Q: What sequence folds into this?
C-alpha cells in the first residue's frame, strides 16, 4: 500500500513585535519621542518691574486667547539603551493695543503692550524601568531623572500716549521696556505607570535657577495627567500644569524684575519611535 507523504503546514509568519518588547529584547537600541502640545493657562498672574516702576498682570483664559499673537511648543527625547537627551521648547507672544477718549472729548489716550516669554530646556536623562511606549503592560512603569540647562527669555515693551484734542495740542508720552535672556541650571524627573494596556498616568516636576543669575532667580514646573493610546505609537495626553518664573536683578535703585505664575490645562499628542 502506497503511503502518501505528509505535507508540512506552511510556517506561520511571525507576529509583529511591539516597540516596547523589541526594546526590552535588545536594550542597546535607539528610541525617541516627539510631543506637540498646547498649554492653556486658566489664569496668569505676575509683576514686571522696569527701572523701579512695577506693573501687575492678572489675566484669565479669555484675556489670553484674545491677546495671543503667537505660540509654539514641543518636547522631544532620544535615548540609546537607558541614557539619552531631552528637550522642551516653548515660545509665546501676547500683545494688546487700546485707544480711549474722555467723555468730553478733551483727551485721547493710547496704550500698547507686547510681552514675550520663552523657555528652552536641554538635559541629560537616565531611565529606570520599562521603555517609553504608547501601549504597555498594566503596572509597567518608568522613572526618568534629568539634569541640564534652561534658557529663559522675557521681554516686555510698554508705551502710553495722552494727547489733548483742543487747540493747544497737549501731548505726553511714556515708554518702558524690560528684556533679559538668561541661563539656569536645571534638575527634574518624570514618571509614568500603565493603568491598562492603553491608559497611563504620568507626572513631571523640575526646578531651575537657585539665584545664580540674580538676587531672585527661580523657575519650576509641576504636571500630572493621563495619556491614552490612539494608535500603536501615538498617545493623546491631557494634564494639569503649573509654571512659575521669578527673577529680580537685586539692584537697590532702578531695579528690574519679572514674575509669571500660570496654571491650567495642557493637551498634547505624543509620538513614539
A:
Amino acid at each position: 500500500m502506497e503511503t502518501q507523504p505528509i505535507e508540512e503546514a506552511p510556517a506561520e509568519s511571525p507576529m509583529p513585535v511591539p516597540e516596547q518588547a523589541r526594546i526590552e529584547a535588545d536594550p542597546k537600541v535607539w528610541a525617541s519621542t516627539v510631543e506637540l502640545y498646547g498649554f492653556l493657562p486658566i489664569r496668569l498672574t505676575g509683576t514686571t518691574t522696569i527701572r523701579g516702576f512695577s506693573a501687575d498682570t492678572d489675566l484669565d483664559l479669555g484675556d489670553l486667547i484674545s491677546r495671543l499673537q503667537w505660540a509654539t511648543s514641543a518636547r522631544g527625547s532620544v535615548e540609546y539603551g537607558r541614557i539619552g537627551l531631552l528637550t522642551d521648547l516653548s515660545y509665546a507672544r501676547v500683545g494688546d493695543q487700546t485707544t480711549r477718549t474722555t467723555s468730553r472729548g478733551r483727551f485721547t489716550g493710547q496704550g500698547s503692550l507686547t510681552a514675550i516669554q520663552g523657555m528652552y530646556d536641554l538635559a541629560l536623562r537616565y531611565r529606570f524601568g520599562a521603555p517609553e511606549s504608547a501601549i504597555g503592560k498594566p503596572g509597567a512603569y518608568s522613572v526618568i531623572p534629568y539634569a541640564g540647562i534652561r534658557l529663559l527669555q522675557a521681554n516686555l515693551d510698554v508705551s502710553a500716549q495722552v494727547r489733548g484734542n483742543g487747540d493747544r495740542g497737549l501731548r505726553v508720552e511714556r515708554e518702558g521696556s524690560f528684556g533679559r535672556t538668561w541661563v539656569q541650571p536645571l534638575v527634574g524627573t518624570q514618571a509614568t505607570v500603565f493603568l491598562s494596556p492603553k491608559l497611563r498616568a504620568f507626572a513631571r516636576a523640575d526646578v531651575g535657577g537657585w539665584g545664580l543669575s540674580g538676587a531672585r532667580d527661580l523657575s519650576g514646573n509641576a504636571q500630572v495627567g493621563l495619556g491614552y493610546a490612539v494608535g500603536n505609537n501615538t498617545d493623546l495626553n491631557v494634564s494639569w500644569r503649573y509654571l512659575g518664573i521669578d527673577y529680580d536683578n537685586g539692584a537697590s535703585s532702578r531695579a528690574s524684575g519679572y514674575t509669571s505664575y500660570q496654571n491650567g490645562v495642557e493637551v498634547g499628542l505624543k509620538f513614539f519611535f
The mean pLDDT is 82. The CA atoms of residues 98 and 272 lie 45 Å apart.
